[in-house]
């Protein structure tokens, strides 16, 4: 695939997850919700990009954020989809360190709503069940994309760590191993491992650091799950990701000063 077309691969891939997931298992709340989330995400990106940077930003990232929000949260109301989309994009411009945004946008917006308005919003909890075909299609295409983006080590480190911690958690809690590892087969985790934790803008730049951060995210998630946090992966990335970015940027400045 020519480099100039690479930027369109993630939007196409997440659209595929949306289509397969919705028509197989009904993962969307409504078409109005997805339209609202994408519209608010794109509009916020365009407005803030013009205000802060003086230019019209490419909307592919905002499109991904809008779809992620519409897939990953569940609500009987429409306002959470709009609020999550707007908050997600705003973090790119308002929550910055050394001229770099440090939170994964959709992770911030989704985590904020799940934590502060849990009575109005829930997270997606659907798995593919016994139908392996859509899961295999998504994982195959996802692996091709992260391989092409040279970030497959992030995904594989997290997945391997998640499986290992699932086994440990099953021993601690006395539950079947497959019960603990099952969430990995769902669309929520597919978005998480292929988009959130591999986001180029909010991950550290060196390979060893990326592997370490992926492991730490899985470790923090393991601890949160033991303490019965339902949305542990989102909270783990919310906590670990920005800290890792701040440390990385501080070390980078120190190295440049030498």
Describe the structure.
The protein has 258 residues and is an all-alpha fold. It has twelve helices and two strands; from the N terminus they run ααααβααβαααααα. It has a two-stranded antiparallel sheet. The N and C termini lie far apart (39 Å). Mean pLDDT is 86; it is low at 1-5.
SSE layout and pairing:
Blueprint: H1 3-6, H2 9-25, H3 31-53, H4 60-72, E1 73-74, H5 79-94, H6 105-116, E2 122-123, H7 132-148, H8 152-173, H9 177-181, H10 187-196, H11 207-226, H12 232-257
Antiparallel strand pairs: 1-2
Features:
mainly alpha; 12 helices; 258 residues; single chain; 2 domains; globular; two-stranded antiparallel ribbon
Strand line-up across the major sheet: 1-2
Task: Determine the number of helices (DSSP H or I, runs of at least 4 residues).
Answer: 12
Q: Name the average pLDDT.
A: 86
The counted number of beta strands is 2
Helix content: over 70%
Query: How many domains make up the 3D coordinates?
Result: 2
Structure in a nutshell:
With 258 residues, the chain is mainly alpha-helical. 72% of the residues lie in helices and 2% in strands. Strands 1-2 form a two-stranded antiparallel sheet.
